[in-house]
Amino acid sequence: MKLITANLFRLLALALLLILLFKTEWLSFLLVPLTKNNAPAVYTQNSLPGLALAHMQLVLISIAGSTVLAVAGGIFVTRRSGADFLPLSRAIANAGQTFPPVAVLALAVPAMGFGAGPTLVALFLYGLLPIFENTISGLHQVSPAVLDAADGMGMNSTQRLFRVELPLALPLIIEGIKVATVINIGTATIGSTVAAKGLGEVIIAGLISDNTAFILQGGLIVGLMAVLIYDAMGLVENAITQRIGLRPA
After folding, report:
1. How wide is the angle at C-alpha 43 spanned by C-alphas 41 and 49, nearest 5°?
2. 8: which of 60, 106, 124, 229 lies 20 to 30 Å off by Cα?
């Protein structure tokens, strides 16, 4: 019953997302009451699927960069040679998370110009902390007995890292990537303030024209994408952990 309910929710959320992207006019009867002075209820200034695709490109590129650096950093500070850098690395990752993205855009635009560049920098910094901290937690949770067993089998440090530590830390690392992805899907909307293509255009168009229907369309699409992608990444995580034997099938 629980599985049926979850699948039903997924299908409903996916159907609503597809309608909002490709057939928004079907929901006009719900959106018209939110407009004023006969303003259009459906956003048609740009292709919504195109904006959604550009939005996800920003998120995916930034998350890929954050993942590479955060996982590498997490591995480094959990080694004996890098342990002294843990406080500094943690402070940098925390700064990336707590520094307002709008301020990052304001600082990056003079150097990089308008467009996707400043947004990618802001999203990259914003995605570091969850992945970095989860990588550290995942590596620290590996039992010393398991590490001793790996040493006893004659593994060197590289073999132990890739064959034992990272596979056991993988669920927590993926969880960090999931959280960072959801955060960036929402945060990427601010990219439209510096001319980066994305779903923020719809929300900003609504704010400028005082059109609540536009704001609702943009917000719903971003929210549904975040929920569905988080759910899909959870399914991928389950499949991977089952495949490597960390979770029963």
Report:
1. 140
2. 60
CA–CA distance, 124 with 65 (Å, rounded to integer): 7
8-state DSSP, 161: I
Digit-coded pLDDT (tens) for 99-128: 888 888 888 999 899 989 999 999 999 899
DSSP assigned state of 42: S
Give the helix ranges, DSSP H, for 28-143.
Answer: 28-31, 48-77, 86-98, 101-112, 116-140
* CATH number of the domain residue 209 falls in: 1.10.3720.10
Q: Are 126 and 95 in contact (CB under 8 A)?
A: no
Distances from the Cα of 22 to the Cα of 4, 205, 215, 227, angstroms: 27, 19, 17, 19
In a domain, 233, yes or no: yes
Per the structure, the count of domains in the chain is: 1
* 34 within a domain of the structure (yes/no): no
pTM of the model: 0.90
Over residues 147-198, the pLDDT tens digits come to 999 989 999 999 999 999 999 999 999 999 999 999 999 999 999 999 999 9
Range of the domain at 125: 48-244
5 within domain boundaries: no
Residues across the chain: 249
- Listed in sequence order, the residues at least 6 apart from 25 whose beta carbon sits closer than 8 Å to its beta carbon are 42
